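During the reporting period the student researcher (J.K.) took over the structure-prediction task from the postdoctoral fellow and processed the backlog of single-chain submissions. One of the processed entries is reproduced below for the supervisory committee.
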Amino acid sequence: MRTDPSRNYKSSWPKVVVRKWLNIKSRADEFHSDYSITGMEERRKSYSDKDRYVFVKGNMSGLQAGAPENLKRPRFEPDVPAVSESQNLRMFVGTWNVGGKAPHGDLNLKNWLSTSTPADIYVLGFQEIVPLNAGNVLGAEDNGPAAKWLSLIRKALCSTKIDTELSQNYTNTTNSEPNQKPRISFSDLLSLEDEMEEEGVELDEVFSSLADFIPYGLSRNDSPTHGRYCLAASKQMVGIFLCVWVRSDLNRHVTNLKVSCVGRGIMGYLGNKGSISISMTLHQTTFCFVCTHLTSGEKEGDEVRRNSDVMEIIKKTRFPHSHRLSGLPYSPDNILDHDRIIWLGDLNYRLASAFGDTYQLLRKNDFQALLEKDQLRIEQKAGRVFKGWEEGRIHFAPTYKYLPNSDRYAVEISKSREKRRTPAWCDRILWRGEGMKQLWYMRGESKFSDHRPVNSLFSVQVNVGSKNKFRKSTPTTVNSCARVGAEEQILILSRLETSLQTSSRF
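J.K. obtained the following C-alpha coordinates:
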Protein backbone atom coordinates (compact mmCIF):
# COMPACT_ATOMS: atom_id res chain seq x y z
CA MET A 1 0.00 0.00 0.00
CA ARG A 2 1.38 3.35 -1.02
CA THR A 3 1.74 6.05 1.61
CA ASP A 4 0.76 9.61 0.85
CA PRO A 5 3.44 11.96 2.33
CA SER A 6 1.04 14.89 2.45
CA ARG A 7 -1.40 12.80 4.47
CA ASN A 8 1.29 11.97 7.01
CA TYR A 9 2.20 15.64 7.24
CA LYS A 10 -1.43 16.60 7.88
CA SER A 11 -1.85 13.93 10.53
CA SER A 12 1.26 15.13 12.38
CA TRP A 13 0.40 18.81 12.10
CA PRO A 14 -2.17 18.83 14.98
CA LYS A 15 0.43 17.29 17.29
CA VAL A 16 2.78 20.17 16.52
CA VAL A 17 0.01 22.67 17.21
CA VAL A 18 -0.89 21.03 20.51
CA ARG A 19 2.74 21.03 21.59
CA LYS A 20 3.12 24.71 20.78
CA TRP A 21 -0.18 25.76 22.38
CA LEU A 22 0.53 23.76 25.55
CA ASN A 23 4.09 25.13 25.58
CA ILE A 24 5.57 21.62 25.54
CA LYS A 25 9.22 21.96 24.63
CA SER A 26 10.44 19.73 21.84
CA ARG A 27 14.03 19.59 20.55
CA ALA A 28 14.59 23.04 22.03
CA ASP A 29 18.20 22.26 22.90
CA GLU A 30 19.12 20.96 19.46
CA PHE A 31 21.00 22.97 16.88
CA HIS A 32 22.95 22.59 13.66
CA SER A 33 26.73 22.48 13.60
CA ASP A 34 29.65 21.44 11.42
CA TYR A 35 30.97 19.34 14.29
CA SER A 36 30.25 15.68 15.02
CA ILE A 37 29.51 14.84 18.64
CA THR A 38 29.89 11.41 20.25
CA GLY A 39 26.66 9.51 20.72
CA MET A 40 24.46 12.36 19.55
CA GLU A 41 24.29 12.06 15.77
CA GLU A 42 25.66 10.18 12.81
CA ARG A 43 28.95 11.09 11.23
CA ARG A 44 28.70 13.37 8.24
CA LYS A 45 28.77 11.53 4.93
CA SER A 46 29.59 14.39 2.59
CA TYR A 47 30.70 18.00 2.47
CA SER A 48 27.81 19.28 0.39
CA ASP A 49 25.68 22.14 1.70
CA LYS A 50 22.87 19.65 2.14
CA ASP A 51 24.83 17.37 4.46
CA ARG A 52 27.48 19.71 5.80
CA TYR A 53 25.80 20.39 9.14
CA VAL A 54 24.20 17.99 11.61
CA PHE A 55 21.79 18.08 14.52
CA VAL A 56 23.49 18.29 17.88
CA LYS A 57 21.69 17.87 21.17
CA GLY A 58 22.87 19.29 24.45
CA ASN A 59 26.42 20.10 25.51
CA MET A 60 29.27 19.61 23.03
CA SER A 61 31.84 17.88 25.20
CA GLY A 62 33.10 14.82 23.32
CA LEU A 63 33.94 13.94 19.73
CA GLN A 64 33.73 10.98 17.45
CA ALA A 65 37.10 9.36 16.98
CA GLY A 66 36.54 9.27 13.24
CA ALA A 67 35.45 12.86 12.76
CA PRO A 68 37.32 14.89 10.12
CA GLU A 69 40.60 16.23 11.48
CA ASN A 70 39.81 19.92 11.11
CA LEU A 71 36.48 19.48 12.92
CA LYS A 72 37.79 17.72 16.00
CA ARG A 73 38.00 19.33 19.40
CA PRO A 74 40.31 18.32 22.25
CA ARG A 75 39.41 16.49 25.42
CA PHE A 76 40.08 18.99 28.17
CA GLU A 77 41.91 17.91 31.28
CA PRO A 78 40.82 19.28 34.67
CA ASP A 79 44.36 20.01 35.84
CA VAL A 80 45.38 22.57 33.20
CA PRO A 81 46.94 25.51 35.10
CA ALA A 82 44.96 28.74 35.08
CA VAL A 83 47.31 31.21 33.40
CA SER A 84 46.22 34.73 32.70
CA GLU A 85 47.11 35.34 29.05
CA SER A 86 44.92 37.13 26.53
CA GLN A 87 44.44 37.37 22.80
CA ASN A 88 42.51 39.94 20.77
CA LEU A 89 40.16 38.61 18.11
CA ARG A 90 37.88 40.36 15.63
CA MET A 91 34.17 39.61 15.83
CA PHE A 92 31.69 40.62 13.13
CA VAL A 93 28.07 40.93 14.31
CA GLY A 94 25.19 41.42 11.89
CA THR A 95 21.40 41.54 12.16
CA TRP A 96 18.79 41.66 9.41
CA ASN A 97 15.02 41.43 9.26
CA VAL A 98 14.48 39.92 5.81
CA GLY A 99 10.71 40.45 5.72
CA GLY A 100 9.60 36.84 5.29
CA LYS A 101 11.42 36.43 1.98
CA ALA A 102 13.51 33.38 1.14
CA PRO A 103 16.88 34.30 -0.38
CA HIS A 104 17.42 33.77 -4.08
CA GLY A 105 20.57 32.20 -5.45
CA ASP A 106 21.86 35.48 -6.87
CA LEU A 107 21.81 37.26 -3.50
CA ASN A 108 25.40 38.25 -2.75
CA LEU A 109 26.22 38.61 0.95
CA LYS A 110 29.86 39.56 0.44
CA ASN A 111 29.04 43.28 0.50
CA TRP A 112 27.33 42.86 3.87
CA LEU A 113 30.01 40.60 5.39
CA SER A 114 33.08 42.21 3.86
CA THR A 115 35.65 43.94 6.04
CA SER A 116 39.12 45.31 5.30
CA THR A 117 40.47 42.42 7.36
CA PRO A 118 38.22 39.36 7.72
CA ALA A 119 36.95 38.62 11.21
CA ASP A 120 37.78 35.60 13.33
CA ILE A 121 34.16 35.12 14.41
CA TYR A 122 30.92 35.94 12.59
CA VAL A 123 27.66 36.22 14.55
CA LEU A 124 24.69 36.62 12.19
CA GLY A 125 21.09 37.00 13.30
CA PHE A 126 17.98 37.12 11.13
CA GLN A 127 14.33 37.86 11.75
CA GLU A 128 11.36 36.82 9.64
CA ILE A 129 13.22 34.28 7.52
CA VAL A 130 9.73 32.84 6.99
CA PRO A 131 6.41 34.75 6.81
CA LEU A 132 4.86 35.08 10.28
CA ASN A 133 1.54 33.52 9.27
CA ALA A 134 -0.54 31.03 11.26
CA GLY A 135 0.90 28.03 9.43
CA ASN A 136 4.49 28.90 10.33
CA VAL A 137 3.72 30.04 13.87
CA LEU A 138 1.49 27.12 14.85
CA GLY A 139 2.60 24.42 12.45
CA ALA A 140 5.75 22.49 11.66
CA GLU A 141 8.90 24.53 11.24
CA ASP A 142 9.96 25.40 7.70
CA ASN A 143 13.75 25.14 7.75
CA GLY A 144 14.21 25.45 4.00
CA PRO A 145 15.03 29.20 4.05
CA ALA A 146 17.50 28.67 6.92
CA ALA A 147 19.41 26.13 4.84
CA LYS A 148 19.54 28.61 1.96
CA TRP A 149 20.88 31.37 4.21
CA LEU A 150 23.56 29.04 5.58
CA SER A 151 24.61 28.09 2.06
CA LEU A 152 24.92 31.74 1.00
CA ILE A 153 26.82 32.67 4.16
CA ARG A 154 29.22 29.77 3.74
CA LYS A 155 29.82 30.75 0.13
CA ALA A 156 30.53 34.37 1.10
CA LEU A 157 32.82 33.51 4.01
CA CYS A 158 34.79 30.79 2.28
CA SER A 159 35.57 33.12 -0.61
CA THR A 160 36.99 35.69 1.78
CA LYS A 161 40.77 36.05 1.70
CA ILE A 162 42.52 35.84 5.04
CA ASP A 163 44.82 38.77 5.72
CA THR A 164 48.15 38.31 7.45
CA GLU A 165 47.05 40.73 10.18
CA LEU A 166 44.94 37.88 11.61
CA SER A 167 47.94 35.72 12.40
CA GLN A 168 47.86 36.20 16.18
CA ASN A 169 47.87 32.45 16.73
CA TYR A 170 51.09 32.11 14.74
CA THR A 171 53.33 34.69 16.38
CA ASN A 172 56.49 32.55 16.34
CA THR A 173 56.94 32.55 12.57
CA THR A 174 59.76 30.33 11.35
CA ASN A 175 62.47 32.19 9.45
CA SER A 176 63.88 29.09 7.78
CA GLU A 177 65.08 28.99 4.21
CA PRO A 178 62.43 27.73 1.76
CA ASN A 179 64.17 24.39 1.17
CA GLN A 180 65.28 23.92 4.77
CA LYS A 181 63.14 21.90 7.21
CA PRO A 182 62.54 23.79 10.47
CA ARG A 183 64.04 22.29 13.62
CA ILE A 184 61.69 21.12 16.36
CA SER A 185 62.29 22.35 19.88
CA PHE A 186 61.53 20.41 23.04
CA SER A 187 58.50 22.63 23.78
CA ASP A 188 57.22 22.02 20.24
CA LEU A 189 57.54 18.29 20.84
CA LEU A 190 55.52 18.53 24.05
CA SER A 191 52.84 20.58 22.28
CA LEU A 192 52.78 18.08 19.43
CA GLU A 193 52.47 15.16 21.81
CA ASP A 194 49.58 16.86 23.64
CA GLU A 195 47.75 17.50 20.40
CA MET A 196 48.30 14.01 19.05
CA GLU A 197 47.06 12.47 22.27
CA GLU A 198 43.98 14.66 22.13
CA GLU A 199 43.40 13.57 18.55
CA GLY A 200 43.71 9.90 19.54
CA VAL A 201 46.99 9.24 17.71
CA GLU A 202 49.59 6.84 19.14
CA LEU A 203 52.94 8.36 20.14
CA ASP A 204 54.90 6.08 17.81
CA GLU A 205 52.92 7.58 14.93
CA VAL A 206 53.97 11.03 16.12
CA PHE A 207 57.68 10.21 16.10
CA SER A 208 57.52 8.36 12.80
CA SER A 209 56.23 11.47 11.08
CA LEU A 210 58.19 14.00 13.15
CA ALA A 211 60.70 14.76 10.40
CA ASP A 212 57.94 16.14 8.18
CA PHE A 213 56.18 18.08 10.92
CA ILE A 214 55.91 21.85 10.58
CA PRO A 215 55.44 23.41 14.04
CA TYR A 216 53.24 26.28 15.14
CA GLY A 217 55.62 28.75 13.58
CA LEU A 218 54.13 28.33 10.11
CA SER A 219 52.63 31.40 8.52
CA ARG A 220 48.90 31.76 8.05
CA ASN A 221 49.25 31.44 4.28
CA ASP A 222 50.72 27.94 4.75
CA SER A 223 47.92 26.79 7.04
CA PRO A 224 45.88 23.85 5.70
CA THR A 225 42.73 25.63 6.88
CA HIS A 226 43.61 28.88 5.14
CA GLY A 227 40.58 31.03 4.45
CA ARG A 228 37.99 28.62 5.82
CA TYR A 229 35.22 29.04 8.40
CA CYS A 230 33.19 26.46 10.28
CA LEU A 231 29.60 26.68 11.48
CA ALA A 232 29.86 26.46 15.27
CA ALA A 233 26.09 26.46 15.79
CA SER A 234 22.84 27.63 14.21
CA LYS A 235 19.30 27.61 15.53
CA GLN A 236 15.87 28.56 14.18
CA MET A 237 12.65 29.39 16.03
CA VAL A 238 9.87 30.16 13.52
CA GLY A 239 11.27 33.29 11.81
CA ILE A 240 14.20 33.99 14.14
CA PHE A 241 17.50 32.50 13.03
CA LEU A 242 20.94 32.79 14.63
CA CYS A 243 24.23 31.31 13.44
CA VAL A 244 27.79 31.57 14.73
CA TRP A 245 30.82 30.92 12.50
CA VAL A 246 34.43 30.63 13.66
CA ARG A 247 37.70 30.51 11.81
CA SER A 248 38.43 26.84 11.25
CA ASP A 249 41.70 26.86 13.19
CA LEU A 250 39.82 28.21 16.23
CA ASN A 251 37.25 25.42 16.31
CA ARG A 252 39.26 23.18 18.62
CA HIS A 253 39.15 25.92 21.28
CA VAL A 254 35.34 26.23 21.22
CA THR A 255 33.50 24.21 23.88
CA ASN A 256 30.22 24.18 25.80
CA LEU A 257 28.04 25.10 22.83
CA LYS A 258 24.43 25.38 23.99
CA VAL A 259 21.20 27.02 22.84
CA SER A 260 18.11 28.38 24.55
CA CYS A 261 14.89 29.69 22.97
CA VAL A 262 12.25 31.92 24.56
CA GLY A 263 8.94 32.59 22.80
CA ARG A 264 7.24 35.94 23.45
CA GLY A 265 4.68 36.00 20.64
CA ILE A 266 1.05 34.89 20.63
CA MET A 267 -0.25 34.23 24.17
CA GLY A 268 3.14 35.30 25.49
CA TYR A 269 5.11 32.21 24.52
CA LEU A 270 4.75 31.30 20.84
CA GLY A 271 7.77 31.79 18.63
CA ASN A 272 6.67 34.50 16.22
CA LYS A 273 8.44 36.85 18.63
CA GLY A 274 11.11 36.08 21.19
CA SER A 275 14.77 35.11 21.30
CA ILE A 276 17.40 32.55 20.40
CA SER A 277 20.53 32.54 22.54
CA ILE A 278 23.77 30.67 21.85
CA SER A 279 26.29 30.13 24.62
CA MET A 280 29.86 29.04 24.00
CA THR A 281 33.28 29.05 25.60
CA LEU A 282 36.27 30.14 23.51
CA HIS A 283 39.51 29.18 25.23
CA GLN A 284 38.67 30.31 28.79
CA THR A 285 36.21 33.11 27.95
CA THR A 286 32.44 32.62 27.87
CA PHE A 287 30.29 34.27 25.19
CA CYS A 288 26.53 34.63 24.83
CA PHE A 289 24.82 35.81 21.65
CA VAL A 290 21.14 36.79 21.94
CA CYS A 291 19.14 37.29 18.74
CA THR A 292 15.69 38.78 19.33
CA HIS A 293 12.57 39.93 17.56
CA LEU A 294 10.56 41.99 20.05
CA THR A 295 6.95 43.16 20.10
CA SER A 296 6.09 45.38 17.14
CA GLY A 297 3.85 48.44 16.97
CA GLU A 298 4.23 52.19 17.31
CA LYS A 299 1.27 52.97 19.53
CA GLU A 300 1.88 54.67 22.84
CA GLY A 301 2.76 52.04 25.43
CA ASP A 302 4.19 49.51 22.97
CA GLU A 303 7.67 50.29 24.27
CA VAL A 304 6.57 48.93 27.67
CA ARG A 305 5.77 45.59 26.05
CA ARG A 306 9.18 45.55 24.44
CA ASN A 307 10.79 46.26 27.81
CA SER A 308 8.82 43.33 29.21
CA ASP A 309 10.08 41.10 26.39
CA VAL A 310 13.67 41.93 27.27
CA MET A 311 13.18 41.24 30.97
CA GLU A 312 11.39 37.94 30.32
CA ILE A 313 14.06 36.81 27.87
CA ILE A 314 16.78 37.48 30.44
CA LYS A 315 14.73 35.74 33.13
CA LYS A 316 13.71 32.65 31.13
CA THR A 317 16.84 31.94 29.09
CA ARG A 318 18.49 28.92 30.66
CA PHE A 319 21.23 26.79 29.15
CA PRO A 320 21.53 23.06 29.90
CA HIS A 321 23.92 22.25 32.71
CA SER A 322 27.31 20.88 31.73
CA HIS A 323 27.95 17.27 32.70
CA ARG A 324 31.53 18.30 33.52
CA LEU A 325 32.84 15.48 31.34
CA SER A 326 36.55 15.56 30.59
CA GLY A 327 37.01 18.55 32.88
CA LEU A 328 35.25 21.07 30.64
CA PRO A 329 35.62 24.68 31.78
CA TYR A 330 32.86 26.49 33.65
CA SER A 331 29.76 27.21 31.58
CA PRO A 332 27.11 29.76 32.69
CA ASP A 333 23.46 28.71 32.69
CA ASN A 334 22.02 32.23 32.08
CA ILE A 335 22.72 35.26 29.91
CA LEU A 336 24.17 37.73 32.40
CA ASP A 337 26.76 35.35 33.86
CA HIS A 338 28.77 35.26 30.62
CA ASP A 339 31.99 37.24 30.21
CA ARG A 340 31.04 38.81 26.86
CA ILE A 341 27.42 39.27 25.71
CA ILE A 342 26.06 40.50 22.37
CA TRP A 343 22.35 41.36 21.99
CA LEU A 344 21.25 41.82 18.39
CA GLY A 345 18.06 41.84 16.38
CA ASP A 346 14.90 43.69 15.44
CA LEU A 347 14.20 45.28 18.81
CA ASN A 348 11.32 47.23 17.24
CA TYR A 349 11.78 50.39 19.36
CA ARG A 350 10.30 53.34 17.50
CA LEU A 351 10.43 57.14 17.70
CA ALA A 352 8.38 58.93 20.34
CA SER A 353 7.44 61.72 17.97
CA ALA A 354 4.57 62.98 15.85
CA PHE A 355 4.69 62.02 12.18
CA GLY A 356 5.15 65.53 10.80
CA ASP A 357 8.07 66.37 13.07
CA THR A 358 9.86 63.14 12.25
CA TYR A 359 9.46 63.59 8.52
CA GLN A 360 10.89 67.11 8.58
CA LEU A 361 13.95 66.03 10.58
CA LEU A 362 14.40 63.07 8.30
CA ARG A 363 14.41 65.25 5.19
CA LYS A 364 17.21 67.34 6.75
CA ASN A 365 19.17 64.22 7.75
CA ASP A 366 19.12 65.47 11.33
CA PHE A 367 19.65 62.03 12.81
CA GLN A 368 20.86 63.28 16.19
CA ALA A 369 17.65 65.22 16.77
CA LEU A 370 15.65 62.15 15.78
CA LEU A 371 17.67 59.95 18.14
CA GLU A 372 16.61 62.13 21.06
CA LYS A 373 13.14 60.69 20.45
CA ASP A 374 14.39 57.09 20.13
CA GLN A 375 12.41 54.91 22.52
CA LEU A 376 15.28 52.55 23.28
CA ARG A 377 17.56 55.39 24.35
CA ILE A 378 14.79 56.99 26.37
CA GLU A 379 13.92 53.75 28.16
CA GLN A 380 17.56 52.83 28.74
CA LYS A 381 18.43 56.26 30.11
CA ALA A 382 15.49 55.99 32.52
CA GLY A 383 16.82 52.63 33.73
CA ARG A 384 13.79 50.67 32.59
CA VAL A 385 15.61 48.38 30.16
CA PHE A 386 19.19 47.33 29.24
CA LYS A 387 20.72 48.87 32.33
CA GLY A 388 24.48 48.49 32.13
CA TRP A 389 24.48 47.63 28.42
CA GLU A 390 26.35 49.63 25.77
CA GLU A 391 25.51 50.69 22.22
CA GLY A 392 27.73 52.51 19.77
CA ARG A 393 27.02 55.93 18.30
CA ILE A 394 24.52 55.86 15.46
CA HIS A 395 25.54 57.85 12.39
CA PHE A 396 23.29 56.10 9.90
CA ALA A 397 19.71 56.66 8.75
CA PRO A 398 16.76 54.77 10.26
CA THR A 399 16.69 51.16 9.08
CA TYR A 400 12.89 50.72 8.82
CA LYS A 401 10.51 50.85 6.95
CA TYR A 402 11.38 50.96 3.25
CA LEU A 403 9.21 50.41 0.23
CA PRO A 404 10.09 47.19 -1.64
CA ASN A 405 13.21 47.45 -3.83
CA SER A 406 13.63 51.17 -3.23
CA ASP A 407 15.42 53.77 -1.14
CA ARG A 408 12.16 55.44 -0.12
CA TYR A 409 10.57 55.08 3.27
CA ALA A 410 7.05 53.68 3.37
CA VAL A 411 5.76 56.87 4.93
CA GLU A 412 6.77 59.09 2.03
CA ILE A 413 4.11 58.15 -0.53
CA SER A 414 1.75 55.86 1.35
CA LYS A 415 -1.89 56.93 1.06
CA SER A 416 -3.22 54.35 3.47
CA ARG A 417 -2.91 55.41 7.11
CA GLU A 418 -2.76 51.76 8.22
CA LYS A 419 0.29 51.12 6.02
CA ARG A 420 2.22 54.12 7.20
CA ARG A 421 5.24 53.43 9.37
CA THR A 422 7.28 56.16 11.01
CA PRO A 423 10.95 55.57 10.12
CA ALA A 424 12.88 54.18 13.09
CA TRP A 425 16.07 52.44 14.17
CA CYS A 426 14.44 49.08 14.81
CA ASP A 427 17.56 47.02 14.13
CA ARG A 428 20.18 47.29 16.86
CA ILE A 429 23.31 45.73 18.34
CA LEU A 430 24.17 46.11 22.03
CA TRP A 431 26.84 44.54 24.20
CA ARG A 432 27.78 43.94 27.81
CA GLY A 433 31.04 42.87 29.46
CA GLU A 434 34.64 44.00 29.68
CA GLY A 435 37.27 43.30 27.07
CA MET A 436 35.15 44.44 24.12
CA LYS A 437 35.81 47.44 21.89
CA GLN A 438 33.50 48.40 19.06
CA LEU A 439 35.41 49.35 15.91
CA TRP A 440 32.39 50.39 13.86
CA TYR A 441 28.61 50.41 13.85
CA MET A 442 26.89 50.86 10.50
CA ARG A 443 24.12 49.68 8.20
CA GLY A 444 24.11 47.97 4.81
CA GLU A 445 22.22 49.16 1.77
CA SER A 446 20.66 45.97 0.43
CA LYS A 447 17.11 46.52 -0.88
CA PHE A 448 16.16 42.89 -0.36
CA SER A 449 13.61 43.66 2.40
CA ASP A 450 11.85 46.58 4.08
CA HIS A 451 14.67 46.67 6.68
CA ARG A 452 18.29 47.59 6.09
CA PRO A 453 20.84 45.19 7.60
CA VAL A 454 22.98 46.46 10.46
CA ASN A 455 26.48 45.28 11.35
CA SER A 456 29.24 45.98 13.79
CA LEU A 457 32.85 44.94 14.20
CA PHE A 458 34.34 44.32 17.64
CA SER A 459 37.77 43.68 19.01
CA VAL A 460 37.24 41.13 21.78
CA GLN A 461 39.73 40.00 24.38
CA VAL A 462 39.88 36.25 24.94
CA ASN A 463 41.63 34.64 27.88
CA VAL A 464 43.86 31.74 26.84
CA GLY A 465 46.00 29.30 28.82
CA SER A 466 49.77 29.21 28.62
CA LYS A 467 51.12 26.74 26.06
CA ASN A 468 54.33 26.38 28.09
CA LYS A 469 52.72 24.83 31.14
CA PHE A 470 52.88 21.06 31.67
CA ARG A 471 49.81 18.93 32.13
CA LYS A 472 49.59 16.13 34.65
CA SER A 473 49.17 12.59 33.49
CA THR A 474 45.62 11.53 32.67
CA PRO A 475 44.89 7.94 31.59
CA THR A 476 41.66 8.78 29.74
CA THR A 477 42.33 8.71 25.99
CA VAL A 478 40.53 6.95 23.17
CA ASN A 479 43.50 4.79 22.20
CA SER A 480 44.96 4.49 25.74
CA CYS A 481 48.09 6.38 24.73
CA ALA A 482 50.66 6.24 27.53
CA ARG A 483 52.19 9.59 28.35
CA VAL A 484 55.96 9.74 28.30
CA GLY A 485 57.91 11.49 31.05
CA ALA A 486 59.96 14.56 30.28
CA GLU A 487 63.27 12.72 30.69
CA GLU A 488 62.18 9.97 28.30
CA GLN A 489 61.04 12.54 25.72
CA ILE A 490 64.43 14.25 25.83
CA LEU A 491 66.12 10.89 25.29
CA ILE A 492 63.77 10.03 22.40
CA LEU A 493 64.30 13.43 20.81
CA SER A 494 68.06 13.07 21.11
CA ARG A 495 67.99 9.63 19.49
CA LEU A 496 65.67 10.88 16.76
CA GLU A 497 67.91 13.83 15.89
CA THR A 498 70.95 11.49 15.79
CA SER A 499 69.05 9.15 13.49
CA LEU A 500 68.01 11.97 11.17
CA GLN A 501 71.56 13.33 10.99
CA THR A 502 72.89 9.85 10.17
CA SER A 503 70.30 9.22 7.47
CA SER A 504 70.98 12.59 5.86
CA ARG A 505 74.58 11.54 5.08
CA PHE A 506 73.44 8.81 2.65
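The committee noted the following: The longest strand covers residues 85-97.
J.K. will present the remaining backlog at the next meeting.
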